[in-house]
């Protein structure tokens, strides 16, 4: 259930690489506790850079970013215990089993052994990996790796879950499985912030969406509100009307200092 309390508050957030490349250009938004919020935009729009700043994986240039009232850059350790993060690229220790990785993750968060074991059992069931928990992660398919990464990000019971294009490259069956898991987590009260460039994903999961293009939020609202505002039939038409030009212009900037930054040529 969505409350009126704001668990994420962002004001005039800016990220500049080098002297000229403005990956995020003064964005302001908030997310309510228990909300499923989406960042929709083309590659290079600033989605990943934004959530990396919220998770304190990338240092902001200016502005404010708060999680549960804590300024991320000032209270990093406290914030880390309140968030989970499933990234675009799943990095697993392929010489360990899933269970071993989860046990290590729990110890790093100073969780009691009983709680670690309880969470491992619950989460492996949630993502349907119980039968393969004692296999090396090197044997997992792409869909299994994504589901395990999701379970790992949830082990310490975060209040907020950040998901950076979690279903990119997955087949339709694996994608639907992850969607189902995310809906269940949100139903149980978890706040989720999802980045995606897939219209069907944003429409299927998100109560509210911010469309980001060239580092700025250019529209915000529920899918239905956006369709009415721009007088179109679906979210895809909204997106193409606002940010369609970016598909023509987008290209990888190999000189970007941040490996997550996908920026257009200058």
Q: Can you walk through the features of this model?
A:
This protein is of the alpha/beta class and 266 residues long. The protein has a single domain, classed as P-loop containing nucleotide triphosphate hydrolases (Rossmann fold). The protein contains 10 helices and 10 strands. The strands form 2 sheets. A 6-stranded mixed β-sheet has the order 6-7-8-3-9-10, sandwiched between helices. A hairpin with a 3-residue loop joins strand 1 (6-17) and strand 2 (21-32). Helix 3 (98-108) crosses helix 4 and helix 4 runs antiparallel to helix 5. The longest helix has 16 residues, at 172-187. The chain is globular and about 50 Å long.
Mean pLDDT: 87
Q: Could you tell me the number of beta strands? A: 10
Under CATH at level 1, the class stands as: Alpha Beta
SS content category: alpha/beta
CATH architecture: 3-Layer(aba) Sandwich
Give the N-terminus to C-terminus distance in angstroms. Answer: 44 Å
Give Rg in angstroms.
18 Å
Largest sheet: 6 strands, mixed
What is the H-and-E element order? EEEHEEHEHHHEHEHEEHHH
Shape: globular
- The share of residues in helices is 25-40%
What can be said about this structure in brief?
The protein has helices at 47-54, 76-80, 98-108, 113-126, 142-154, 172-187, 199-205, 223-229, 235-243, 245-249, and strands spanning 6-17, 21-32, 36-40, 62-67, 70-71, 83-86, 160-164, 191-196, 208-213, 216-221.
């Amino acid at each position: 259930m969505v409350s009126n309390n704001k668990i994420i508050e962002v004001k005039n957030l800016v990220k500049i690489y080098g002297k000229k490349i403005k990956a995020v250009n003064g964005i302001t938004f908030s997310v309510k506790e228990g909300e499923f919020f989406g960042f929709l935009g083309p590659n290079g729009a600033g989605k990943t850079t934004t959530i990396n700043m919220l998770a304190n994986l990338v240092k902001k240039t200016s502005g404010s970013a708060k999680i549960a009232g804590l300024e991320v850059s000032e209270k990093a350790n406290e914030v880390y215990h309140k968030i989970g993060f499933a990234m675009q690229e799943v990095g697993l220790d392929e010489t360990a089993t899933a269970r071993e990785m989860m046990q290590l993750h729990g110890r790093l968060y100073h969780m009691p052994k009983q709680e670690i074991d309880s969470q491992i059992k619950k989460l492996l069931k949630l993502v349907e990996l119980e039968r393969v928990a004692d296999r090396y992660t090197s044997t997992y398919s792409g869909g299994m790796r994504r589901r395990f990464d999701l379970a790992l990000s949830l082990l310490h019971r975060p209040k907020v879950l950040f998901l950076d294009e979690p279903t990119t490259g997955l087949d339709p069956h694996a994608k639907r499985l992850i969607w189902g898991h995310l809906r269940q987590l949100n139903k149980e009260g978890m706040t989720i912030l999802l980045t995606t460039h897939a219209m069907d994903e944003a429409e299927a999961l998100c109560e509210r969406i911010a469309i980001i293009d060239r580092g700025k939020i250019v529209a915000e609202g529920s899918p239905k509100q956006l369709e009415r505002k721009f007088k179109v039939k679906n979210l895809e038409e909204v997106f193409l009307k606002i940010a369609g030009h970016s598909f023509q212009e987008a290209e990888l900037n190999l000189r970007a200092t941040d490996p997550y930054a996908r920026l257009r040529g200058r």
